[in-house]
Amino acid sequence: MGPLDLLALSPPGWGATLLAGLWNSLLIAVGAFSMGLVLGGLGAWGKIHGGPITRDLLAMYTTVVRAVPELILILILYFGVTDLVNQILIAFGHERIQISGVLAGIAVLGVVQGAYATEVLRGALLAVPQGQVEAAKAMGMPPLLMARRVIFPAMLGLAMPGLANLWLIATKDTALLAVVGFGELTFATRQAASSTKAFFTFFLAAGVIYLIITLLSGWIFARIEAWARRGEPRNSGG
Question: Residue 215 — very low, low, confident or very high, per pLDDT cuts 50/70/90?
């Protein structure tokens, strides 16, 4: 059987299996990236405007998550937290639950993304020109309106390169979920390769898929950054 036959969408090809794995990978990456943005936004705000205890807790969160290898975090959060939840349910007289693989993957990678997003967004917030913020305050602009019209537009262009990197990390980190048996792209690729012994064909196909995702993502984030930086003076040295 040739490589094209192995990658065909209809049996005995494994194309449909790979596409199903790709769909799960993208679903988890989008969910984790979105969750990371929410956690990162709250974390950045807390680190800048929070009290001493809040800042210490957030510093502990970002330090621990960034210090421990992501594979170890995934194993701890995926198995450890699931077991802890079930132990609590049993202690209160409830039955064990089976947490969805997609939801567990989003939660695990979302916690990791949140730690990195906290620092990316904190840096972008601190880089917003204070003159613009002071001018908005002097005009009597309410805090929410100032955040929407002054701070967010100014920080978006500054944060976009870091957020683009976080998105790419999210897409590739989904491959780590293969170690816990979740059916994302890498897991589906390993299944197909093991069944057919065509390891080179399937892992090369998976690599090409990840490369296409990276190229498309880079193009999309570049367009978003160009839109966010519209009106800014061009760097003559660039």
Answer: very high
DSSP-derived letter for residue 32 is H
Six-digit token pair at 82? 């699931």
2 HSE (CA, 13 A, CB side): 2
- For the stretch 84-138, pLDDT in tens is 888 888 888 888 877 777 887 888 889 999 999 999 999 999 998 888 888 888 8
In whole angstroms, what is the distance from residue 174 CA to residue 71 CA? 10
Helices assigned H by DSSP within 92-198: 101-127, 130-138, 143-146, 152-173, 185-196
Could you give the CA distance from residue 224 to residue 215 in angstroms, rounded to a whole number? 14
d(CA 77, CA 158): 31
Q: How far apart are CA 111 and CA 113, in angstroms?
A: 6
CB 193 within 8 A of CB 203: yes
pTM for the model:
0.85
51 against 78, higher pLDDT: 51
Q: What is the DSSP letter of 1?
A: -
Cα separation, 167 vs 33, whole angstroms = 6
The per-residue pLDDT for 238 is 42
Contact residues for 104 (Cβ-Cβ < 8 A; gap 6+) = 78, 82, 182
